[in-house]
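Task: complex structure prediction.
Instruction: return C-alpha coordinates for all chains below.
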Amino acid sequence: MSESNWKLWEVFLRSKNGLSHKHVGSLHAADSEMAIKNARDVYTRRSEGISIWVVPSEEITASAPDEKDPLFTPSDDKVYRHPTFYDIPDDVEHM
Amino acid sequence: MGTNVSLKDKFQAYVDAENKVEPKDWMPEKYRRTLIRQISQHAHSEIIGMQPEANWITRAPSLRAKLILLAKVQDEAGHGLYLYSAAETLGEPREKMIADLQSGKAKYSSIFNYPTPSWADMGTIGWLVDGAAIQNQVMLTRTSYGPYARAMVKICKEESFHQRQGYEIVMKLAQGTPEQRSMAQESLNRWWWPSLMMFGPSDDNSPNSEQSMQWKIKRKSNDTLRQEFIDKTVPQAEYLGLTIPDDNLKWNSERGHYDFGEIDWREFYEVIKGNGPCNKERIAHHKKST
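Output:
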Protein backbone atom coordinates (compact mmCIF):
# COMPACT_ATOMS: atom_id res chain seq x y z
CA MET A 1 0.00 0.00 0.00
CA SER A 2 1.24 3.41 -0.96
CA GLU A 3 0.24 4.96 2.39
CA SER A 4 2.41 2.76 4.55
CA ASN A 5 5.02 5.42 5.26
CA TRP A 6 2.69 8.33 5.72
CA LYS A 7 2.87 10.01 9.09
CA LEU A 8 -0.01 10.16 11.51
CA TRP A 9 -1.23 13.70 12.22
CA GLU A 10 -3.42 14.94 15.05
CA VAL A 11 -6.11 17.39 13.97
CA PHE A 12 -7.32 20.39 16.00
CA LEU A 13 -10.21 22.64 14.99
CA ARG A 14 -11.27 26.10 16.07
CA SER A 15 -15.04 26.18 15.67
CA LYS A 16 -15.21 29.98 15.79
CA ASN A 17 -13.07 32.92 16.75
CA GLY A 18 -12.96 33.38 20.48
CA LEU A 19 -12.74 29.65 21.17
CA SER A 20 -9.58 27.59 21.34
CA HIS A 21 -8.62 24.81 18.96
CA LYS A 22 -9.86 21.43 20.11
CA HIS A 23 -8.60 17.97 19.28
CA VAL A 24 -10.99 16.15 16.94
CA GLY A 25 -9.07 13.10 15.70
CA SER A 26 -6.20 12.04 13.52
CA LEU A 27 -5.37 11.10 9.96
CA HIS A 28 -2.54 9.97 7.71
CA ALA A 29 -0.90 12.30 5.21
CA ALA A 30 2.37 12.61 3.35
CA ASP A 31 3.02 16.21 4.46
CA SER A 32 1.44 19.06 6.39
CA GLU A 33 -0.26 20.56 3.35
CA MET A 34 -1.95 17.28 2.55
CA ALA A 35 -2.83 16.84 6.21
CA ILE A 36 -4.69 20.17 6.17
CA LYS A 37 -6.54 19.24 2.98
CA ASN A 38 -7.49 15.83 4.32
CA ALA A 39 -8.55 17.34 7.64
CA ARG A 40 -10.81 19.73 5.74
CA ASP A 41 -12.52 16.79 4.02
CA VAL A 42 -12.63 14.43 6.98
CA TYR A 43 -13.44 16.73 9.87
CA THR A 44 -15.20 19.84 8.54
CA ARG A 45 -17.92 18.63 6.17
CA ARG A 46 -20.59 20.41 8.23
CA SER A 47 -19.05 23.79 9.11
CA GLU A 48 -17.37 22.45 12.23
CA GLY A 49 -14.41 24.78 11.94
CA ILE A 50 -12.88 27.98 10.65
CA SER A 51 -9.27 27.09 11.41
CA ILE A 52 -7.32 23.83 11.39
CA TRP A 53 -4.10 22.85 13.13
CA VAL A 54 -2.32 19.64 12.21
CA VAL A 55 0.52 18.31 14.35
CA PRO A 56 2.59 15.17 13.67
CA SER A 57 1.49 12.70 16.35
CA GLU A 58 5.10 11.78 17.05
CA GLU A 59 5.84 15.39 18.03
CA ILE A 60 3.40 15.30 20.93
CA THR A 61 4.88 14.50 24.30
CA ALA A 62 2.27 13.23 26.71
CA SER A 63 2.36 12.68 30.44
CA ALA A 64 2.35 9.01 31.33
CA PRO A 65 -0.96 7.63 32.67
CA ASP A 66 0.79 5.82 35.52
CA GLU A 67 2.32 9.11 36.69
CA LYS A 68 -1.16 10.51 37.09
CA ASP A 69 -0.96 10.36 40.89
CA PRO A 70 2.40 12.05 41.47
CA LEU A 71 1.56 14.71 38.88
CA PHE A 72 -1.96 15.64 39.77
CA THR A 73 -2.83 14.64 43.32
CA PRO A 74 -0.66 17.34 44.97
CA SER A 75 -3.20 19.94 43.90
CA ASP A 76 -6.06 18.06 45.55
CA ASP A 77 -5.08 19.11 49.08
CA LYS A 78 -4.56 22.75 48.21
CA VAL A 79 -8.13 23.78 48.70
CA TYR A 80 -7.02 27.31 49.62
CA ARG A 81 -6.39 27.86 45.90
CA HIS A 82 -10.14 27.97 45.31
CA PRO A 83 -12.19 31.10 46.07
CA THR A 84 -14.84 29.09 47.92
CA PHE A 85 -12.25 28.27 50.62
CA TYR A 86 -12.66 31.77 52.10
CA ASP A 87 -15.58 32.82 54.29
CA ILE A 88 -16.64 36.30 53.33
CA PRO A 89 -19.87 37.70 54.83
CA ASP A 90 -22.77 38.07 52.37
CA ASP A 91 -22.95 41.76 53.21
CA VAL A 92 -19.65 42.34 51.48
CA GLU A 93 -20.49 42.79 47.83
CA HIS A 94 -18.58 42.54 44.55
CA MET A 95 -16.14 39.89 45.76
CA MET B 1 -0.18 -13.74 38.21
CA GLY B 2 -1.52 -12.24 41.42
CA THR B 3 -0.86 -8.67 40.28
CA ASN B 4 -2.35 -9.50 36.88
CA VAL B 5 -5.65 -10.49 38.45
CA SER B 6 -5.75 -7.41 40.59
CA LEU B 7 -5.08 -5.15 37.58
CA LYS B 8 -8.04 -6.79 35.84
CA ASP B 9 -10.22 -6.28 38.90
CA LYS B 10 -9.12 -2.68 39.11
CA PHE B 11 -9.94 -2.23 35.44
CA GLN B 12 -13.39 -3.74 35.89
CA ALA B 13 -14.11 -1.50 38.87
CA TYR B 14 -12.94 1.51 36.88
CA VAL B 15 -15.27 0.63 33.99
CA ASP B 16 -18.13 -0.21 36.36
CA ALA B 17 -17.86 3.32 37.76
CA GLU B 18 -18.62 4.63 34.23
CA ASN B 19 -15.10 5.92 33.62
CA LYS B 20 -13.74 6.04 30.07
CA VAL B 21 -10.64 4.14 29.06
CA GLU B 22 -8.11 6.19 27.07
CA PRO B 23 -5.41 4.90 24.68
CA LYS B 24 -2.41 4.77 27.01
CA ASP B 25 -4.31 3.40 30.02
CA TRP B 26 -3.68 -0.16 31.12
CA MET B 27 -6.30 -2.52 29.73
CA PRO B 28 -6.66 -6.30 29.55
CA GLU B 29 -5.18 -7.63 26.33
CA LYS B 30 -8.51 -9.20 25.45
CA TYR B 31 -10.26 -5.85 25.84
CA ARG B 32 -7.75 -4.36 23.40
CA ARG B 33 -8.15 -7.22 20.92
CA THR B 34 -11.94 -7.14 21.14
CA LEU B 35 -11.97 -3.41 20.43
CA ILE B 36 -9.53 -3.69 17.54
CA ARG B 37 -11.70 -6.40 16.01
CA GLN B 38 -14.94 -4.52 16.55
CA ILE B 39 -13.74 -1.03 15.55
CA SER B 40 -11.90 -2.25 12.46
CA GLN B 41 -14.93 -4.30 11.38
CA HIS B 42 -17.01 -1.21 11.86
CA ALA B 43 -14.56 0.85 9.78
CA HIS B 44 -14.49 -1.79 7.03
CA SER B 45 -18.29 -1.74 6.94
CA GLU B 46 -18.31 2.01 6.34
CA ILE B 47 -15.76 1.70 3.54
CA ILE B 48 -17.28 -1.34 1.82
CA GLY B 49 -20.69 0.24 2.38
CA MET B 50 -19.76 2.97 -0.09
CA GLN B 51 -19.88 0.48 -2.97
CA PRO B 52 -23.57 -0.48 -3.14
CA GLU B 53 -24.51 3.21 -3.11
CA ALA B 54 -21.76 4.49 -5.37
CA ASN B 55 -23.37 2.16 -7.89
CA TRP B 56 -26.15 4.74 -8.35
CA ILE B 57 -24.26 8.05 -8.29
CA THR B 58 -24.03 8.34 -12.06
CA ARG B 59 -27.65 7.28 -12.50
CA ALA B 60 -29.36 9.29 -9.76
CA PRO B 61 -32.72 10.53 -11.08
CA SER B 62 -32.07 14.23 -10.47
CA LEU B 63 -29.22 16.61 -9.72
CA ARG B 64 -30.59 17.04 -6.20
CA ALA B 65 -30.62 13.28 -5.65
CA LYS B 66 -27.10 13.01 -7.02
CA LEU B 67 -25.69 15.72 -4.76
CA ILE B 68 -27.28 14.09 -1.73
CA LEU B 69 -26.01 10.65 -2.63
CA LEU B 70 -22.49 12.00 -3.22
CA ALA B 71 -22.53 13.71 0.17
CA LYS B 72 -23.74 10.53 1.83
CA VAL B 73 -21.08 8.34 0.24
CA GLN B 74 -18.45 10.91 1.19
CA ASP B 75 -19.73 10.72 4.77
CA GLU B 76 -19.26 6.96 4.78
CA ALA B 77 -15.62 7.46 3.76
CA GLY B 78 -15.26 9.95 6.61
CA HIS B 79 -16.83 7.54 9.08
CA GLY B 80 -14.44 4.82 8.00
CA LEU B 81 -11.53 7.18 8.63
CA TYR B 82 -12.71 8.24 12.12
CA LEU B 83 -12.99 4.57 13.00
CA TYR B 84 -9.63 3.52 11.56
CA SER B 85 -8.07 6.35 13.58
CA ALA B 86 -9.82 5.12 16.73
CA ALA B 87 -8.55 1.58 16.12
CA GLU B 88 -5.03 2.88 15.52
CA THR B 89 -4.97 4.39 19.02
CA LEU B 90 -4.94 0.78 20.24
CA GLY B 91 -1.67 0.13 18.42
CA GLU B 92 -3.04 -1.59 15.33
CA PRO B 93 -1.44 -0.25 12.11
CA ARG B 94 -3.83 0.88 9.39
CA GLU B 95 -2.08 -1.26 6.76
CA LYS B 96 -2.64 -4.38 8.82
CA MET B 97 -6.36 -3.68 9.11
CA ILE B 98 -6.64 -3.17 5.35
CA ALA B 99 -4.62 -6.32 4.66
CA ASP B 100 -6.91 -8.31 6.97
CA LEU B 101 -9.97 -6.98 5.18
CA GLN B 102 -8.60 -7.91 1.79
CA SER B 103 -7.48 -11.38 2.87
CA GLY B 104 -10.92 -12.09 4.32
CA LYS B 105 -9.56 -12.43 7.87
CA ALA B 106 -11.46 -9.35 9.01
CA LYS B 107 -15.19 -9.16 8.42
CA TYR B 108 -17.55 -6.32 7.65
CA SER B 109 -21.30 -6.05 8.00
CA SER B 110 -23.00 -8.80 5.98
CA ILE B 111 -25.57 -6.31 4.66
CA PHE B 112 -23.14 -4.82 2.15
CA ASN B 113 -22.89 -8.11 0.29
CA TYR B 114 -26.34 -7.62 -1.17
CA PRO B 115 -26.74 -5.95 -4.59
CA THR B 116 -28.52 -2.67 -5.33
CA PRO B 117 -30.34 -3.28 -8.64
CA SER B 118 -32.96 -0.56 -8.12
CA TRP B 119 -32.96 3.18 -7.36
CA ALA B 120 -35.44 2.37 -4.60
CA ASP B 121 -32.58 0.58 -2.85
CA MET B 122 -30.91 3.95 -2.22
CA GLY B 123 -33.97 4.86 -0.21
CA THR B 124 -34.33 1.54 1.56
CA ILE B 125 -30.65 1.46 2.53
CA GLY B 126 -30.85 4.89 4.11
CA TRP B 127 -34.08 4.09 5.90
CA LEU B 128 -33.40 0.54 7.09
CA VAL B 129 -29.67 -0.08 6.90
CA ASP B 130 -28.66 3.29 8.30
CA GLY B 131 -31.58 3.07 10.70
CA ALA B 132 -30.29 -0.23 12.04
CA ALA B 133 -26.77 1.17 12.18
CA ILE B 134 -27.98 4.17 14.18
CA GLN B 135 -29.71 1.87 16.66
CA ASN B 136 -26.37 0.21 17.34
CA GLN B 137 -24.27 3.37 17.15
CA VAL B 138 -26.34 5.41 19.57
CA MET B 139 -25.58 2.70 22.12
CA LEU B 140 -21.90 2.90 21.20
CA THR B 141 -21.67 6.64 21.97
CA ARG B 142 -21.56 5.40 25.57
CA THR B 143 -19.00 2.66 24.99
CA SER B 144 -16.21 2.47 27.56
CA TYR B 145 -13.33 3.20 25.16
CA GLY B 146 -12.99 6.98 24.82
CA PRO B 147 -11.79 7.32 21.20
CA TYR B 148 -14.49 4.92 19.97
CA ALA B 149 -17.20 6.76 21.89
CA ARG B 150 -16.07 10.12 20.49
CA ALA B 151 -16.01 8.80 16.93
CA MET B 152 -19.55 7.49 17.47
CA VAL B 153 -20.88 10.85 18.64
CA LYS B 154 -19.68 12.45 15.45
CA ILE B 155 -20.95 9.60 13.29
CA CYS B 156 -24.40 9.57 14.90
CA LYS B 157 -24.88 13.26 14.18
CA GLU B 158 -24.20 12.61 10.51
CA GLU B 159 -26.15 9.35 10.21
CA SER B 160 -29.39 11.06 11.00
CA PHE B 161 -29.18 12.83 7.63
CA HIS B 162 -28.59 9.45 5.99
CA GLN B 163 -31.69 7.89 7.42
CA ARG B 164 -33.93 10.87 6.67
CA GLN B 165 -32.78 11.23 3.08
CA GLY B 166 -33.43 7.51 2.60
CA TYR B 167 -36.90 7.69 4.04
CA GLU B 168 -37.63 10.67 1.79
CA ILE B 169 -36.69 8.64 -1.30
CA VAL B 170 -38.91 5.73 -0.24
CA MET B 171 -41.74 8.14 0.60
CA LYS B 172 -41.60 9.75 -2.84
CA LEU B 173 -41.82 6.33 -4.47
CA ALA B 174 -44.52 5.06 -2.12
CA GLN B 175 -46.64 8.11 -2.86
CA GLY B 176 -45.93 8.03 -6.59
CA THR B 177 -47.28 6.03 -9.52
CA PRO B 178 -48.26 2.35 -9.09
CA GLU B 179 -44.95 1.38 -10.71
CA GLN B 180 -43.02 3.54 -8.25
CA ARG B 181 -44.98 2.08 -5.34
CA SER B 182 -44.11 -1.42 -6.41
CA MET B 183 -40.44 -0.41 -6.72
CA ALA B 184 -40.50 0.68 -3.08
CA GLN B 185 -42.27 -2.49 -1.96
CA GLU B 186 -39.97 -4.76 -3.94
CA SER B 187 -36.93 -3.09 -2.41
CA LEU B 188 -38.34 -3.39 1.12
CA ASN B 189 -38.99 -7.08 0.47
CA ARG B 190 -35.33 -7.64 -0.34
CA TRP B 191 -33.78 -5.54 2.46
CA TRP B 192 -36.01 -6.23 5.45
CA TRP B 193 -34.53 -9.52 6.62
CA PRO B 194 -30.88 -8.69 5.88
CA SER B 195 -31.40 -5.47 7.89
CA LEU B 196 -32.57 -7.47 10.91
CA MET B 197 -29.49 -9.67 10.55
CA MET B 198 -27.28 -6.58 10.97
CA PHE B 199 -27.71 -6.84 14.75
CA GLY B 200 -25.85 -10.14 14.71
CA PRO B 201 -26.71 -13.59 16.03
CA SER B 202 -29.41 -14.02 18.66
CA ASP B 203 -28.26 -13.60 22.25
CA ASP B 204 -27.98 -17.31 22.95
CA ASN B 205 -25.64 -17.65 19.94
CA SER B 206 -23.45 -14.65 20.55
CA PRO B 207 -20.40 -15.91 22.46
CA ASN B 208 -18.53 -12.57 22.73
CA SER B 209 -21.48 -10.52 23.91
CA GLU B 210 -21.34 -11.27 27.61
CA GLN B 211 -17.75 -10.16 28.06
CA SER B 212 -18.34 -7.08 25.91
CA MET B 213 -21.32 -6.13 28.03
CA GLN B 214 -19.31 -6.60 31.20
CA TRP B 215 -16.60 -4.28 29.90
CA LYS B 216 -19.31 -1.87 28.77
CA ILE B 217 -18.07 -2.00 25.19
CA LYS B 218 -21.66 -2.97 24.39
CA ARG B 219 -24.55 -1.90 26.56
CA LYS B 220 -27.47 -3.67 24.95
CA SER B 221 -27.75 -7.18 23.60
CA ASN B 222 -28.22 -7.99 19.90
CA ASP B 223 -31.81 -9.10 20.44
CA THR B 224 -32.69 -6.00 22.44
CA LEU B 225 -31.34 -3.71 19.73
CA ARG B 226 -33.12 -5.70 17.03
CA GLN B 227 -36.43 -5.47 18.88
CA GLU B 228 -36.03 -1.70 19.37
CA PHE B 229 -35.35 -1.30 15.68
CA ILE B 230 -38.42 -3.32 14.67
CA ASP B 231 -40.65 -1.41 17.09
CA LYS B 232 -39.51 1.90 15.60
CA THR B 233 -39.64 0.83 11.98
CA VAL B 234 -43.01 -0.88 11.70
CA PRO B 235 -45.00 2.36 12.16
CA GLN B 236 -42.71 4.06 9.62
CA ALA B 237 -43.62 1.38 7.06
CA GLU B 238 -47.29 1.68 7.93
CA TYR B 239 -47.12 5.42 7.31
CA LEU B 240 -45.86 4.70 3.80
CA GLY B 241 -48.51 2.06 3.23
CA LEU B 242 -45.81 -0.53 2.57
CA THR B 243 -45.99 -4.11 3.80
CA ILE B 244 -43.16 -5.60 5.82
CA PRO B 245 -42.51 -9.08 4.39
CA ASP B 246 -43.16 -11.04 7.58
CA ASP B 247 -46.47 -12.88 8.08
CA ASN B 248 -45.75 -13.32 11.77
CA LEU B 249 -45.24 -9.64 12.45
CA LYS B 250 -47.84 -8.37 14.90
CA TRP B 251 -48.15 -6.14 17.94
CA ASN B 252 -48.01 -7.97 21.22
CA SER B 253 -49.69 -5.72 23.77
CA GLU B 254 -48.61 -7.95 26.65
CA ARG B 255 -44.92 -7.56 25.80
CA GLY B 256 -45.33 -4.04 24.52
CA HIS B 257 -43.34 -5.05 21.43
CA TYR B 258 -43.89 -6.44 17.96
CA ASP B 259 -43.57 -10.19 17.61
CA PHE B 260 -41.78 -11.21 14.46
CA GLY B 261 -40.91 -14.29 12.43
CA GLU B 262 -37.83 -16.48 12.48
CA ILE B 263 -34.67 -15.04 10.92
CA ASP B 264 -32.97 -17.34 8.40
CA TRP B 265 -29.68 -17.72 10.24
CA ARG B 266 -28.39 -20.12 7.61
CA GLU B 267 -28.41 -17.27 5.11
CA PHE B 268 -26.67 -15.00 7.65
CA TYR B 269 -23.81 -17.44 8.23
CA GLU B 270 -23.46 -18.17 4.52
CA VAL B 271 -23.03 -14.45 3.78
CA ILE B 272 -20.56 -14.06 6.67
CA LYS B 273 -18.58 -17.01 5.32
CA GLY B 274 -18.20 -15.20 1.99
CA ASN B 275 -21.01 -16.79 0.00
CA GLY B 276 -23.33 -13.79 -0.25
CA PRO B 277 -24.34 -12.41 -3.64
CA CYS B 278 -21.57 -9.77 -3.78
CA ASN B 279 -18.79 -10.74 -1.33
CA LYS B 280 -16.19 -11.42 -4.03
CA GLU B 281 -17.10 -8.37 -6.04
CA ARG B 282 -16.81 -6.06 -2.99
CA ILE B 283 -13.33 -7.23 -2.02
CA ALA B 284 -12.10 -7.33 -5.63
CA HIS B 285 -13.25 -3.73 -6.06
CA HIS B 286 -11.56 -2.68 -2.82
CA LYS B 287 -8.29 -4.26 -3.92
CA LYS B 288 -8.46 -2.48 -7.24
CA SER B 289 -8.71 0.87 -5.46
CA THR B 290 -5.70 0.48 -3.13
